[in-house]
Amino acid sequence: MAVRPKKSLGQHFLNDLDIARRIADTLSPDTLPEGAGKWGSLPILEVGPGTGVLTQFLLQTGRPLKAVELDTESVGYLKKAYPHLDVVEDDFLRLDIGKLFEGEFVLTGNYPYNISSQIFFRLLDFRERIPVCSGMLQREVAQRLCSPPGSKVYGILSVFLQAWYDCEYLFTVDENVFTPPPKVKSGVIRLVRNSRTSLGCDERRFRTVVKTAFGQRRKTLRNSLATLLPPEGEILSSPLLKERPERLGVEEFVELTRMLTPGEGK
User: Fold this and answer.
1) What angle do CA 80, 81, 84 make, to 5 degrees?
2) pTM of the predicted model over 0.85
């Protein structure tokens, strides 16, 4: 049974077994950063397994595995090729993934290009349940998620993810190992939950500040945050307002949020 890659679903099926094995290894206790090995035996949730090229190596770990797949044709193929695999036919972005496992689990996949950013926003909703996430996505997006402050590609999702995870770009994957080949290279990343338990500011306000700041990223924060600034007060003399948003790290955005929150600002 052949599965046709569907452009509407952003499908590019990986056909290189070595790359698939390397992605699976990103969740191995032996490859996790120091202190993160304790998560190396958690259940695995794979997003977009397609024809199961990565799935076969995840099954070899012996850990509980569930695979979420929206494409009916792929679901039929997976159930025949891997009869013991728990396949969930659903849209990952709409599914209540917290009900799939009790307790913590890890996330991985060859993520569909057209929803990769949305997948990582979804990850943040379950950050207390997902201590480790790895996988492959479009290189440009992968680099953005892991880029430090000061980088031209550093942006909204970079800040949101790095507030809660240590983000690492692992390696680049060429176009010719996919069917059909995408027009861009791919990148494999790994995110490991950091020790932060609280931002130290109102999280909803934090998100508003970050999104507003990057909405006009070429302007200084004094200009891009004009709608959020009070008419007077100490914040107007803050050196942070002289910077552009890509120059600020998570802690600076937290400080800025506190200054812009009634009752907390100076």
Assistant:
1) 80
2) yes
Amino acid 263: pLDDT:
66
* Domain chopping of the chain, boundaries: 7-193, 203-259
Long-range own/partner contacts, residues 18-23 (CB < 8 A, 24 or more apart): 19/136, 19/173, 19/177, 20/53, 20/54, 20/56, 20/57, 21/57, 22/171, 22/188, 23/54, 23/57, 23/108, 23/110, 23/134, 23/135, 23/136, 23/188
Specify whether domain 203-259 bears CATH 3.90.550.10.
no
User: Which residues are paired to 69 by β-bridges?
Assistant: 89
CB 104 within 8 A of CB 129: yes
**Coil, helix or strand for 72?**
helix
**Cis previous bond, 239, omega within 30:** no
> Could you report the per-residue pLDDT of 151-210, keeping only the tens digit for each?
999 999 999 999 999 999 999 999 999 988 999 999 999 999 999 999 999 999 999 999
Please report the sign of the dihedral spanned by the C-alpha atoms of residue 162, residue 168, residue 173, residue 178. Answer: negative
CA angle 158–162–163, rounded 5-degree value: 120
pLDDT in tens, 200-216: 999 999 999 999 999 99
CATH C-level class of 7-193 = alpha beta
Burial 251-260 (b: 16+ CB within 10 A, else e): ebbbbbbbbb
Site of tokens 């020790």: 195
Q: What is the pLDDT of residues 16-68, one digit of tens each?
A: 999 999 999 999 999 999 889 899 999 999 999 999 999 999 999 999 999 99
